[in-house]
Write a structure and sequence with these properties.
The structure is a single chain. Helix content is 36%, strand content 21%. By secondary structure, the chain is an alpha/beta fold. The strands form two sheets. It has an eight-stranded parallel beta sheet with strand order 6-7-8-9-10-11-12-13. Strands 1, 2, 3, 4, 5, 14 and 15 form a seven-stranded mixed beta sheet that branches. It is globular.
Amino acid sequence: MAGFVLKNATIATMAGGVPAYGLIENAAMVAEDGKIVWVGADADLPAHLQSLPQEDLEGRLVTPALIDCHTHIVAGGNRAREFEMRLEGASYEEIARAGGGIVSTVRATRQADEDTLLASALARVDHLIAEGVSTVEIKSGYGLDMETELRMLSTARAIATQRDIRVRTSFLGAHAVPAEYKDQPDAYIDEVCIPALEAAHAQGLADAVDGFCEGIAFTPAQIERVFVKARALGLPVKLHAEQLSNLGGAVLAARYDALSADHLEYLDEAGVVAMKDAGCVAVMLPGAFYTLRETQMPPIDLFRKHHVPMAVATDCNPGSSPVTSLLLSMNMACTLFRMTPEEALAGATREAAWALGLPDSGTIETGKLAELAVWNVAHPAELSYRIGYNPLARRIVGDLS
């Protein structure tokens, strides 16, 4: 893989510290063999690197490529009618208990073959790529049987063969109780979820294990049985926690050294402290908050107080967050959750990388992967400021091709 030099750029390294955004003006960056080997002031570019192919960016902003660390992008059908029902007054919980919600997507996903699932997922992935995304996390969880859960994960893996994007998969068998196990969640965990997890691991289809800890899904005790199996298989865990109530899911996730706990609108300070002690990333999902017209915001000030890193993701899914724009999610994180533009950009780069266990990504530093986004903007705050506007000039993954 050839090396290259980017010159005459404004670079937001997102490496933390001072100045804000890790901003370097009049900057240059050098990559060789797909990795960053030097970044600094244009005038300080080492002589031995100046023979590499160079591209003048004419002052454009360079950031790490964006990372969408929480999606359900492989799914069958849509839930537009449920959108109407919510506008007519039905709550998310009421729809779910009446056989809608996640279970309705399960029906559509079970009926879809892998080619159908792949085609619809690629259309959504293309929207993310067009906004500078280089890595996407994709969950299962709309199969809730052995065959469909594995088909979803296989489809997610296939996306990386069809597009120049890195895919991380999460097994989400503990997402909801399917109709055939109604009122039998423990039997579902024992007879379907855990065996499907074992099969996914045996086939190399799962990078992590997730669950939904909520009154309409699974209790902490039920989720813990899944986490025990994940630990035995050597897989890291994540958790949908405290979205609609506080069942102590984030504390459970922290006890199992989870990569992240996600949603977290009802999290209390004890949960925040537990996450801090475990090094667990808090993933903000403002698209779901917006779509469901929630009013309970996640405890942003407590995350700041206790220095819990905050990631931002689309939560792209058919029901509660039909969002395929990470830039819009960053704007929502600022306008709805009062995150700063710097926190939002860090959340879609540096912190998102940590939420996926990817220390080689998320910042522009020596030794990191050369996964970059070049923007037609003067300052990184513009990426969160604009609504419905995509200023991406180009995405660079490894080389300039």
